[in-house]
Design goal:
The protein has about 140 residues and is an alpha+beta fold. The chain has three helices and five strands, in the order αβββαββα. Helices cover about 30% and strands about 20% of the residues. Strands 1-2-3-5-4 form a five-stranded antiparallel beta sheet, with helices on one face. The chain binds guanosine-5'-monophosphate and zinc ion (ZN).
């Protein structure tokens, strides 16, 4: 399979590894959006959040605080964002990963959204709530 993150897991291409156990690997993102920008992935190839099984999910998500605390302690950021992209055009590597992006005063990273609260009434929230809830399995 032609997956860049599987190649990192298998040691076929190098990476700056931060943490590794039987199921999980964390390593520096090549772009370093900010200093310490890290990716945490399951070693098992899983394409995205929709394909993540409980065991793999637990393995990855349970280690995020460990890596986040190491970043915080070592690099002293003012904050830290988690970001996780699924599907094109958001996702560029189709092996599930969570970005840990430490934030610094006046870094050039922006993660934001528009507040649409003014255009939502009670009925609008209830409609969205119902639509999503009926698909919970
Ligand atoms: P996505 O857009 O899929 O959420 O993010 C994929 C990330 O993988 C990007 O931030 C990109 O910099 C990173 N990336 C792509 N190829 C490599 C690589 O070969 N090594 C490392 N360390 N990161 C990579
Ligand atoms: Zn893979």
């Amino acid at each position: 399979m032609d997956c860049i993150f599987c190649k990192i897991v298998n040691g076929d291409i190098p990476a700056y590894k931060i943490y590794e156990d039987d199921d999980v690997l964390a390593f520096l993102d090549i772009t370093q959006a900010t200093k310490g920008h890290t990716l945490i992935i399951p070693k098992k190839h899983v394409e995205n959040i929709y394909a993540l099984d409980d065991k793999t999910s637990q393995a990855v998500f349970s280690k995020i605080p460990t890596v986040a605390n190491a970043i915080k302690e070592s690099l002293n950021p003012i904050g830290l964002n988690l970001l996780q992209n699924n599907d094109q055009p958001l996702q560029s590597v189709f092996h599930f990963h969570v970005h840990l992006i430490p934030r610094y005063q006046e870094d050039e990273t922006t993660i934001g959204w528009v507040n649409h609260q003014d255009s939502y009434q009670d009925a609008d929230y209830k409609h969205v709530q119902t639509e999503i809830k009926k698909c919970i399995k």
